[in-house]
């Protein structure tokens, strides 16, 4: 992407600062004008007071110089402060918008990306883009104005001498251009390495127990070292380039000033210029080079920021997988029916469908358990119900309303999800329970915890509900974390409850402690339970078997064959049979309830 294209992409985050930008630019221009005028006063002082030794000629130009310097100082301070405010507000806006956007992206986006690299884009890359768009604009404007003013003043004093000293200006452009191309390459590498470092650290620390248990600390350190070394090399190359540029410019600048002084001696001897005039001229030429040098350096900063800008544009170009055009809302109520009507779905980028014409009805207030082999499409049902994705074909309704006609927010307010991973956030127990209902009172939080059978163990924690849990809830056992997530679901007061493997990884006793509150919850809500654990079947009104992306069998749990075609697992609970590739093909015993029967159901419930 060109700098112009990038600038246009990020301009919307700066647009509202137009007045401030103009004000800051005006103040910084005023500061440059003050500098130009101050040099002029220096010339007047030299020629009229210094050269003649007349003290009376000193006061007026000295007072003017002081006034001009004070004005310049105020303008520099106000302009700089205003510019910093603009830059920081731009950062706030861009980071906020980016985060808001990324939060709407579908699960597969996060599954395919390293978390650390995403985090790095929110820090270093956003700041680099600020230099490209906000500070860059002001710095360029003031540098250009500085060049025009000082060059103008030098031309005004002695146009022939000025042209002679400008002859070296193209050398600057050439040097800047050469440096820019190289800087761009190393900056892209530096940004990528920076993202990889964040990824390596985040990954290693998130899985630190596994790393320690497998004695893989050295390998993890090595991984980090490789990325750090890559970053180190890119940084050194960057430093080499940026450190080389100013001395090169200084050499060119010194040649110019010496040239002016050399020619000046001759001009003074011929009385074509005064000493003050020559000194002022040399000062203008000297002042001319820093903004020229700045322009070159801005080009380099901008080039470096392009790599960061492209990484942000890549994120901003990712589209959410559902369009939230629906405005529909549902009338308040506790029991709602769900229907999947011939639902087909293929994940973006996948070559096989996850659901193939799935029909399923969960009646209002019913407790349906969905089971089936791994990869059958069970969790996909939950993702479609919460509209992380829209079906590729068919439709899903809640209380008769097509999900795509409802606003996503209204829909998600209706559904409480207890996901497979019992997520715990950095914060207190109370914060964690109230995560989905932040305005809940302490009494409501405690009531939800009681209902989820969590109140007792929370009280035993060092600070009760105010105990800080830490990012991954290390203080809690798996079952306790699960009960916190149940309390969270209870507090949301949603009409539909979706539970994805609520007893996964728990021993028999912990699973029982999760079951009791789950039963209470399901009594007042339409419940969709996704699980391999056939022990849970007894809780449900109906068990639905999904395989190959569609419903292949269903019926009441009472009609499950003894043991549900299951063996006892080492923890004493029954689980579905280990890979029974040619299962009877029929999970339910025949009776007068019509059930779907298939020739052969390759169930392999155990994961
Ligand atoms: N983000 C994704 N991108 C592509 N394919 C996916 C994605 N998530 C799931 N799938 C595929 O969709 C199919 C159904 O997956 P799903 O997670 O719904 O199965 P499941 O029945 O819940 O399995 P499990 O019991 O192991 O959790 C699988 O073939 C899976 O590989």
Automatic annotation (TrEMBL):
This is ABC transporter ATP-binding protein. The chain crosses the membrane at residues 21-43, 63-84, 132-153, 159-176, 243-266, 272-290. It is a multi-pass membrane protein. It comes from Saccharopolyspora ipomoeae. Residues 22-304 form the ABC transmembrane type-1 domain. SMART domains: AAA (SM00382). Residues 338-573 form the ABC transporter domain. Gene3D superfamilies: ABC transporter type 1, transmembrane domain, P-loop containing nucleotide triphosphate hydrolases. GO terms for molecular function: ATP binding. InterPro entries: AAA+_ATPase, ABC1_TM_dom, ABC1_TM_sf, ABC_transporter-like_ATP-bd, ABC_transporter-like_CS, P-loop_NTPase, Type_1_exporter. PANTHER family: ATP-BINDING CASSETTE SUB-FAMILY B MEMBER 10, MITOCHONDRIAL (PTHR43394:SF1), ATP-DEPENDENT PERMEASE MDL1, MITOCHONDRIAL (PTHR43394). Pfam families: ABC_membrane (PF00664), ABC_tran (PF00005).
